[in-house]
Amino acid sequence: MAASAAEVRIPEVTAGMKSAAEAPSQTILDLRNLNVHYGTFHAVQDVNLAIPKNRITAFIGPSGCGKSTVLRCINRMNDLVPSARVDGQILYHGTDLNGANVDPVEVRRRIGMVFQRPNPFPKSIFENVAWGARINGYKGNMAELVERCLRQAALWDEVKDKLKQSGLSLSGGQQQRLCIARALATSPEIILLDEPASALDPISTLKIEDLLRELQATYTIVIVTHNMQQAARVSDQTVFYSLGESRQGILVESGPTQKVFTNPSDPRTEAYITGRFG
Amino acid sequence: MSAGIQASPLAVAPSAAEARYEPRVRTRGRIAGGWRGIFFGATALAIVLLGMLLWSILQPGWSWLSWHLITAMPSRIPANAGMNSAIWGSIWIVSISAVVAFVIGLGCAIYLEEYAPRNRWTGFIQTNISNLAGVPSIVYGLLGLVVFVDWLHMGRSVLAGALTMGLLILPVVVISSREAIRAVPLSLRQASYGLGATQWQTIRAHVLPSAFPGILTGVILSMSRAIGETAPLIVVGGASQVLFRPASLFDPFMVMPLQIYNWTSRPQKEFEHLAAAAIIVLMIVLLLFNAVAILLRQHFSKKTRW
Q1: Which of A13, A79, B130, B197 is the most buried (most CB within 10 A)?
Q2: How many CB atoms within 10 Å of residue A149?
Q3: Whole-model pTM above 0.90?
């Protein structure tokens, strides 16, 4: 039974997959022996991973496997969790983001984040985009920047006549694109997305996915997703996490998306992507 | 259908499963209605008591309410007596104590909620702030007498009274401000930090604007308490007759509840009516204070576009 399900599912998943065989890209982020503890709980164990520049990397895996935790380490959002302890190195252009001389505020400006639930500020649409740029000392024409970011986020046409309305007056999908526009406004190099479409309807989800493909030319994107079709559709590289013996998150396999989905080297990856587990 | 089971018009297709349920829809409906009645009764009782209270004040006091009452100074002769000095004294005391409690209380709340580590020491401080809110007001009066009047040589002045009153309402302001700050969703803070905001930028641009209406509500409530408090001010020194309105922080003062207390303790019948009229004035001044605070709150809520 399980085997036949696998045969049916794999082609379906790979149908819309991006053509691989793109030129190799330089590494922008290099995670080395990353370990995360929350108090006494070992949340993530020994993650080693290289994230290529101007590519989309998808993190997949069952709930609680630490994929979001790894993502939050990359822009040091785990600093905000008092009990969290992060060990190991995260090299960004060769500099360790956890180094003593690195300010998390600067890290987050360069490595932006979009969260699972759309969380626009209770301010106007314009101000939602402008605020991040302003606090980071943006000196250019603000109206131009806001328009450019909203266009990049494929939201401009829908909101150009109501920039003064609250960001919360938009639909869920529009709010999430506003959050992406907001992240773009600080001119980051990397954008982290933590299940950005899990609270959205299928049409909004597809819009976000199209958007990610467009943004890939300019930005490096790391996306956590529960939706394997989504990982297969949008990503160049897929990283599969799972749970170890003491429920700690471990990195099982990473590689080009096409390879991970069609010819995974670890049986656990195969079990997961064929729907036999997780 | 047997007599014991309530027949439902919806039970058109009796099945085997139907027999296993005893929905008692009508009984449950009656219980629900009973509770509704109890809650309505509680509200009605509160309104009736409030109405009786108002009536017991308005009935003897209304006809004594006059322009003279609020412009004249206290006098031994009822027909000449006014409460001008007490009104101004109350306005000074409540305004200054509200500003003092707001500034210190909000600062304390921000520190405890945003900066302080969560450990046994801060837990101890937090518990004790809650305890301070329950300390009898006379104790604050004694503290004010010792610290402000004697040690700091403020004497029986407006400043000493206002600072004492500020201390009295401080715990309430701290507690309500903390509640308001804590209610700001984590997702909003994360959004801000995610853009490379510092902690202060996050607090200033997102946490405080969202929490401000709640913070002001706490200040409004504590001002209502401050304007009616008598005991601590008797101790700190507003007890005697004051025949001029305060012109500086170091003048002696009189407040409305003290004036009312003073009049009710006099033998002449007329002073009872004057006291009732003074209570009406006190309520009007209190409502004016609250109206200003509510307008402020609305102004700040409008800035946040939920």
Answers
A1: B197
A2: 25
A3: no
